[in-house]
Amino acid sequence: xxxxxxxxxVLLAAAILSGWSAWRQREKPVPAAEDDARSxxxxxxxxxxxxxxxxxxxxxxxxxxxxxRNRADQTxxxxxxxxxxxxxxxxxxxxxxxxxxxxxxxxxxxLRGDVEGDSPSSGNVVPTTFRTQxxxxxxxxxxxxxxxxxxxxxxxxxxxxVGFEANLKTRQYKLLSQVKTRYEPNAAR
Length: 189
Fold this sequence. Notes:
- By secondary structure, the protein is mostly beta strands.
- The chain has two helices and eleven strands, in the order αβββββββββββα.
- Strand 4 and strand 5 form a beta hairpin.
């Protein structure tokens, strides 16, 4: 045998061996760490009823097309929520928005985008509506408030202002600043 053939065979074997060794020692993909921002669960087209801890009566109803519960902080994000919050007479306030957020323990709700609030309407109570872009609701305190501009309407009167607070049980409302009032006597009849 010729020395060139032996050298070529040895070099070929070394190249194959080094390629095989490099392939075996390549970096293996590491499984991705679990994403804490992922949802625990997702609800679609649902209705949720929460009960008061002390009385066992309905304290809130939530209807929405979609809700995601965040695994990391246990908060929930809601698409186009509809909240029904009963007043002292058990008649529900209706609160709607484009998006909603609920804290982990349910003590705070944040409504954002085209927020609409409508009081219950019954024979002896004057219906009230308000419109704003953001509203924070504290159901355990029966409180709703916002620092944003608000327009509030009752039969015969329209009020607007910046900043708003409402006690949802007693139906007491406050516009906090820049209040403008417009009386419409014909609408009251």
